[in-house]
UniProtKB/TrEMBL annotation:
GO molecular function, one term: GTP binding
Keyword Disulfide bond in record: no
Pfam families for this protein: Ras
SUPFAM superfamilies tied to this protein: P-loop containing nucleoside triphosphate hydrolases
Any one biological process term the GO annotation gives: small GTPase-mediated signal transduction
Cellular location(s): Cell membrane
Keyword Nucleus on entry: no
Annotated InterPro entries: P-loop_NTPase, Small_GTP-bd, Small_GTPase, Small_GTPase_Rho
Protein name as annotated: Ras homolog family member V
Family: Belongs to the small GTPase superfamily. Rho family.
Gene Ontology cellular component terms for the protein in this record: plasma membrane
């Protein structure tokens, strides 16, 4: 597998490398798909003719959702934490040579934004459900809050479970701080088990700071979103043909 990434005219070739986290079916899903990322003018008429994928990031506040998006889209990293209300980012990628526009919706995890956040869920093609690997309470909220919330508004879109801040898993200062509260980082096997429980497409761990596995997260999201969009359009087409067929039969019987 070979994935091409283009930024500012400079092309870096990243030969497919195995993720250190468990990614169920990642190689099988991505294999055969050639992805390339570019920057686009969202006001360009060309944008309107491209396949659009809506990807929504959800999870507790301060787990690093904004950092993931900023690091992926700009190669930068936020200097300080600023709570998000709702931000959107638009990036163009090429999947098998075809242009695909991915819209990244960065949502707020605080309860004050519950109503605003739920407005983002309809028509979503893929969810990135995020927790911090060094914040066990954010992991617990995956099943207590986030999965029930998104499934209430969108029961079919694929979900990727993402463990953020993976660079802190072995950080001595973080481990000392957690030990004061008698807690430890979320074990990988436990996160993998949760991914199976919620029927996630995969579980991936990444770091926005070091960008380790960051590209793999969004590659998986893009492919999952494209495949979901294709399935939905196929269902709509089949439904339309069935409806048209019924209408023709009704018209036939009216004239007989």
């Amino acid at each position: 597998m070979q994935v091409l990434v283009q930024k500012g005219g400079q092309e870096d070739v990243a030969v497919g490398r195995g993720s250190t986290s468990t990614v169920k079916g990642f190689r099988n899903v991505i294999q055969g798909h050639r992805l390339q990322k570019e920057w686009i003018d969202i006001h360009s008429p060309l944008v309107q003719t491209q396949l659009g994928i809506k990807c929504v990031l959800v999870g507790d506040g301060a787990v690093g959702k904004t950092s993931l998006v900023v690091s992926y889209t700009t190669n930068g990293y936020p200097d300080e934490y600023q709570p998000t209300a709702l931000d959107t980012f638009s990036v163009q990628v090429l999947v098998d040579g075809a242009p695909v526009r991915i819209q990244l919706w960065d949502t707020a995890g605080q309860e004050d934004f519950d109503c605003l956040r739920s407005l983002c869920y309809p028509d979503t093609d893929v969810f990135l459900v995020c927790f911090s690997v060094v914040n066990p309470s954010s992991f617990q909220n995956i099943t207590e809050k986030w999965i029930p919330e998104i499934r209430t508004h969108n029961p079919r879109a694929p979900v990727l479970l993402v463990g953020t801040q993976a660079d802190l898993r072995d950080d001595v200062n973080v481990l000392i701080s957690l030990d004061r509260y008698h807690v430890k980082p979320v074990p990988r096997p436990q996160a993998e088990g949760l991914a199976d429980k919620i029927r996630a497409e995969a579980y991936l761990e990444c770091s926005a700071l070091t960008q380790k596995n960051l590209k793999e997260v969004f590659d998986m999201a893009i492919v999952s979103g494209v495949e979901h969009k294709a399935r939905q359009e196929k269902k709509m087409t089949a439904k339309g043909i069935k409806t048209l067929s019924k209408c023709r039969w009704k018209k036939f019987f009216c004239f007989v």
